[in-house]
Design goal:
Helix content is about 30%, strand content about 25%. About 30% of the residues are buried. The longest helix has 16 residues. It has a six-stranded mixed sheet with strand order 1-4-5-6-7-8, with helices on both faces. A two-stranded antiparallel ribbon has the order 2-3. It is α+β, with helices and mostly antiparallel strands and about 220 residues long.
Length: about 220
């Protein structure tokens, strides 16, 4: 059986995504993610924020559950500026999707009930929207699924709760790859079932299981 470490899977996946037009960024913790988010939202909205204005944006973002945050992504925020004026802030270009900024990072540490370090995070305009959990080849795919559930319980809501914006999870051991949505069905007392994970398939309904092949089609910027 072919063996491949998690580190090698991460490295290869990030290199592949960079080749597909993603920007690779080094983000080790929430403060660095916040700095990146601020820079990306300023770029996207062609403006700059004062510290107080950015704090208002973070307070606006850190509200509600999964469905609420999905709606927040689609809507604009009327930002009260320090001079008393208002400016509409857009978090996502919903009409010209490919014009958003796509970034990838890995090994971000979040400290909540426990300290967790996530494998690969895809960010769009600075917000983490796709989380990818990898296990080395030969490990059961359900182990990656269980790991994601632990992260959600232990640290997704910590700090400003940016990881609660994750819309999709991808789990893979290199040879088997599945995805599932982040739904409100999950809570700390009743875990999501592995049966809700899905394979992606090509136009002939043939499952795409290899991580590299999956990433090429599913994580293409204008598709994801």
């Amino acid at each position: 059986m072919t063996t491949q470490s998690e580190a090698a899977l991460e490295e290869n996946l990030i290199a592949q995504l960079v080749g597909m037009g993603y920007e690779s960024v080094v983000i080790s913790d929430e403060p660095e993610m916040l700095r990146n988010l601020r820079a990306q939202l300023e770029l996207h909205n062609e403006t700059t924020f004062s510290n107080a204005e950015f704090e208002r944006i973070l307070n606006h973002l850190n509200k509600g559950g999964v469905y609420d945050r999905a709606r927040t992504l689609r809507d604009k925020m009327s930002l009260l500026r320090d001079d008393g004026t208002h400016k509409n802030i857009e978090f996502m270009n919903m009409t010209k999707w490919c014009q958003n900024t796509f970034q990838v990072t890995n090994q971000v540490t979040q400290v909540g009930e426990y300290k967790n370090r996530y494998d690969v995070t895809i960010m769009i305009n600075g917000l983490p929207l796709v989380q990818i959990e990898l296990k080395r080849r030969g490990i059961e795919l359900k182990e990656a699924f269980n790991q994601v559930n632990r992260y959600r319980r232990h640290s997704f809501s910590s700090g400003y709760g940016l990881y609660q914006f994750v819309q999709l999870f991808v789990i893979s051991n290199g040879g088997n790859t599945k995805y599932y949505s982040n739904t409100v069905a999950y809570n700390t007392t009743k875990k999501e079932s592995f049966k809700f994970t899905s394979f992606w398939a090509d136009k002939d309904n043939k499952k795409i299981t290899e991580l590299e092949d999956f990433a090429r089609v599913f994580l293409e910027k204008c598709h994801v």
